[in-house]
């Protein structure tokens, strides 16, 4: 997926690229409070351009290996979110995990819903059978994004991830891509 996919007036989804570290650091710093309840506790280093550029390098290695599809949501030169397929498994599973977030200034505009749709289409192009995602039990907005994209709830993972400094339960969703 080397093309740009337009989501909204001036907003596009594209593959993560070398040099995106500075814009990612700015996006994460700008959204630090907005994302804090939904993500792992972050150290100050996480919000630096150097740290983000090193993460870009790792993500691009995973892209090259076929185990991830790291995407950014961009408005002009500004990164305003992420949507990622990670832990892509081939063989009998043909599965990926989905993660996403949108800048606080852009919520409520359908951008997350549309970006997740782009990721689902990319998963289908990659020949995957299934995409799965987890949300915090109380994150109804994220659950709606998934439901609008045809995901169905299939379980509850107790104490699944350490989010905001504590182990938290997650609702699990899946989207089957065949048929």
Automatic annotation (TrEMBL):
Gene3D superfamilies: 3.40.630.30
Highest taxon, organism lineage: Bacteria
Entry keyword annotation includes Acyltransferase: yes
Coiled coil: none
InterPro entries, sorted: Acyl_CoA_acyltransferase, GNAT_dom, N-acetyltransferase
CC annotations in GO: ribosome
Domain annotation N-acetyltransferase: ranges: 30-178
Family: Belongs to the acetyltransferase family. RimJ subfamily.
Name of the protein this chain belongs to: Ribosomal protein S5-alanine N-acetyltransferase
Organism phylogeny: Bacteria, Bacillati, Actinomycetota, Actinomycetes, Micrococcales
